[in-house]
Amino acid sequence: MVNREDANCEQVWREISNYLEGDVDAGLRAAMDKHFGTCPKCRSVLDGTRNVIRLYSDDRMIEVPIGFGRRLERRLVQGRRVGSRGWSTWSAWLVPVAALVLIAGGVRIASSSTVAHPLQSEHAQPGRDIPPDMLVIVSTGAKDFHVPGCGVIHNKDSARTVTAKEAIEQGYVPCVRCMRKYLQTAEVERTSLEVEADASLDAEDDGIRARK
Amino acid sequence: MAEPNLVLNNPGSDTTRELDLIARVQRGQNELFYELVRPYERRVYAAALAILRNETDAEDVAQEAMLKALANIRQFRAEARFSTWLIQITVNEALMRRRRERTVVMEGIDDRRDEEGEYTPRDFADWREIPSEALERKEVRQRLADALERLDRKYREVFVLRDMEQLNIQETAETLGISVASVKTRLLRARLMLRDLLAGGWEQGWFSRLPFEKGSKPW
Asked: Is ipTM > 0.95 here?
């Protein structure tokens, strides 16, 4: 603690920076001023320290490499381009990503409901006039549904019996052998079963909308 | 005898024009950003250099800091000085760079004493005030830069932020993550050590060659 009336040299050195900051109270300032008036050494330290602050705070003390400003400006322009390109890239990806999300979401919804699967074979024909309640055989991993006893039923271990309507809703197509008679007049037009399945789905959709 | 406060506390740079520029950049006119920061580009570079002590790294960090400032311009609030905000971003960026690269820095003089200990001035030569015109001479600027370079890192960083970058004591403490008391202690030592280093230079004769002395010592 500095003696408020008679500061010695060490005390003055300790506070000289705060003194120059204006960060000493009135009593301490008065004691230091009194000391500076009688001590040439401390006066020299004060003058020198004050000079240091003045010199270094001058803007000319800060020198930047030649071309610094130009390079900085160029970097900022590039940064903005990258930023905007980043947005463009992002936004360009946004549409297909969103589409994929919607598709995936749609598939998930489809899986959770009784929406008909797409035909499982690109060569498949939907058939026509197939009795909806006709019992047929389907199996996991296979594409066709069959009449019981058909000789080309695949994956018999997983075979199960369903109605023709259910088989069609699940994406199975009539076997070209055992269901031949239903394919001979097959057309691209929708079968009565498909129309029926769609009607069923529409009814479900209406139910979902009504619940919402 | 009253000693005026010699230390600049606020250079008053936040002009209406600056605030207008800030607002426009915040609204998306990024092309105005360089115009906004141009008055501070030298200080930003100096802050980075004080920490990294390598011109190439300092320039790179200064640019990175400016880009970061642009990216975060909407977070700037007018209650702070824009220049201080820029300097703080720069110092953070430089400190991160230094930590990341584990730069081996050859340190300057360190008084090897505990921060709480006393620093005794070594030179008591009476020197007259050096006019600012002396800074026109590259030799003088180089001498001052060399003296600053000789300081230990912890003193140099505080001195640069407070006396060259014009951050106040509190801002300096916050920027470096140290206490206000530490800033004051380090600042005292930095100033006294620089005074001693420069006084030695005066006595070695280089100062006497300056034109304003006309062959006579200033003290």
From this structure: no
pLDDT at B180: 95
My answer on whether B146 and B197 are in the same domain is yes
Q: How far apart (Å, rounded) are the C-alpha atoms in residues A138 and A147?
A: 9
Domain boundaries, chain A: 9-61, 64-112, 135-211
Task: Report how many domains make up chain B.
Answer: 2
* CATH code at position B178: 1.10.10.10
Q: Which of residues 92-151 of B touch A (CB under 8 A)?
A: 118-121, 123-130, 132, 134-136, 141, 144-145, 148
DSSP letters for A147-211? -TT-TT-S-GGG-EEEEHHHHHHTT-EE-TTTTHHHHTT--SSPPHHHHHHHHHHHHHHHHHHHH
Residue span of the structural domain in which B24 resides: 16-101
Q: Give residue B179's pLDDT band: very low, low, confident or very high (50, 70, 90).
A: very high
Distance from CA of B186 to the nearest CA of A (A): 10
pLDDT tens digits, one per residue of B97-146: 988 876 455 444 444 444 555 777 776 666 656 677 777 788 888 888 98
- The pTM (predicted TM-score) of the whole model is 0.61
- Structure tokens that stand for B197 in this block: 């280093």
Closest partner residue to A49 (CB to CB) among B120, B125, B192 is B192
The CATH number assigned to the domain holding B31 equals 1.10.1740.10
Question: At residue A53, does pLDDT exceed 60?
Answer: yes
